[in-house]
Amino acid sequence: MNNKINNIKITQVQSAIGRKYDQRLILVGLGLNKINKSVILANTNSIKGMVEIKIENM
């Protein structure tokens, strides 16, 4: 069995100013707090849900 977990790189490209409060909380939860900051996270369903539903337009 291959237990290798795929990773996903997420980059914040716009400011959180003017966004809804829950979207800003998602950014903090992902470890993003500045424009052009990137984080590498495990590609899990919870991470994909946060990115696709809440912050895909940022």
From TrEMBL:
Keywords: Ribonucleoprotein, Ribosomal protein. The keyword Ribonucleoprotein applies. It comes from the Bacteria. GO terms for biological process: translation. Gene3D superfamilies: Ribosomal protein L30, ferredoxin-like fold domain. The keyword Ribosomal protein applies. One of its GO terms (cellular component) is large ribosomal subunit. NCBIfam families: rpmD_bact. Part of the 50S ribosomal subunit. Belongs to the universal ribosomal protein uL30 family. This is 50S ribosomal protein L30.
